[in-house]
Amino acid sequence: MYGLINSALKDMISEQFGEEQWQAVLSASGVSEDSFLSTRSYDDAVTYSLAGAASEVLGEPLETCLELFGEYWVLETATRSYDMLMNAAGQDMVEFLTNLNALHDRITSTFLNYSPPEFHIEEKEDHHLIHYMSKRQGLSPFVVGLLKGLAIRFECELTLLEQTEMAVDEGTHTVFEVKISTS
Amino acid sequence: MIQSADVPWSELHQLFTIVMGLDDSMEIIHASETLIKYLPVVQTRPRLDDVFIVLRPSSLDTFEGATKNLGSLCLMTAKSGRFAVRGQLLRVRAGDKYILCFCGAPWLFWMNNNCPDIRLAINDFSSQDVQLDQLFFMSTEKRMVEDLEQVNRDLLAAKKQLEEAQDAQNRFFAQMSHEIRTPLNGVVSALSLLDKCPTDCQQSQFVRLAQSSSHNLMQVINYVLDVSKLELSPKEDTVFSCLELACSTAEVVKARAEEKSLELTLDLSAHLPGACYGDPGPTPADITKSADQRYQIY
Known about the structure:
The complex is a heterodimer of chains A (183) and B (298).
Chain A (H helix, E strand, L loop, with lengths): L2 H15 L1 H11 L14 H15 L3 H28 L3 H18 L7 E6 L4 E7 L5 H14 L2 E10 L6 E11 L1
Antiparallel strand pairs in A: 1-2, 2-4, 3-4
Helix pairs in contact in A: 1-2, 1-3, 1-4, 2-3, 3-4, 4-6
Chain B lengths: L8 H7 L2 E5 L5 E4 L1 H6 L9 H4 E5 L6 H5 L6 E5 L5 E11 L2 E10 L1 H7 L16 H66 L4 H31 L6 E3 L1 H18 L16 E3 L5 H14 L1
């Protein structure tokens, strides 16, 4: 994954739990680097090690840490660095999720070897189905955090009705059944 | 939308979000949805120069002038100051005559700088348009620069911390060595005096052993002092007393002089100033070393 992810994780832990906790996470992870360059590609193992160590040090389940990180990603990292693009991608949550693949297409042309997830949104009678497909595993809780962050950004109410893991040969395909209502 | 037969408008719309047809009098005879959304006036068939200020190329006033610039990048801002486009002109056959087609997109960089309140959407740019990619790249580069600046700050802070720790350590060694040397001088003097006292053979052997060990220890301490002095930050000029410096140095070498049965005389000039300003070095350790070398000549 790109250094942007790792440095966002570092920022979140430092800002929300303190620099000492970040140092403890770094030490527990066994990752030797303390600084990550946004456009440099790092092994996925670095990110997984940091996330695992965060769970251990903060005494929270990994899923909770990933969810917290997903929310931070939308509300802090993406907003701070890419607010104009976030605005361009949509004025409400459904529009944003509909355009997310197009946004990822553009990122792929800049971040070579970037392997983004795919999102598809289906409108049902009184709810939406959000399909999340990735070559990676174990990041569905991060997506839950992303959705919660987007709900805050677009000032709407999000209710996660059901989460279903679909059988796939490789990676992940999760379907989130959600209710999105304007507050 | 104004339609004109024989022109592949729908194909052009797939590739470009801003499409504009211009007839031979430079009237806007066709406009795409995105253009109409941000500049509704184009639906009234105005002339190009009634709506836009052309920045590049320099001449788009007439159909003939424009056809000479088909390969050029066109940059135009709306006279309202609320929209801008970038693109290229094509000459397209429409029936038995030619028209010009402007094909392009909103001029993102200009819009972000001049109308940041107008939120352009991702769909206002066709997939092949790289302006959003460039915006993403620039945002990432900005973040990258911030990352590097942070790394630089961290490195400077770590360097400063290390230098301060090193200075503190050197000061500690210097102080400790100085503190040890004073009593050690007493030990050296006492051993020298003891050597002159009547002692039996074994006692003399012990005294010589003690003298040898104390000399070795003194050399080690002087070495530590020299290293500490070298590693300490450069001294700044300061006010110091020459008299005190001379006396403290004499005190240090006095025992060594006595040991060699030499008389040490401190002869100070009457013109010696009370206070001096400058680098107080050479330190007592330097002078001591110099004095030691003189003893060796004797």
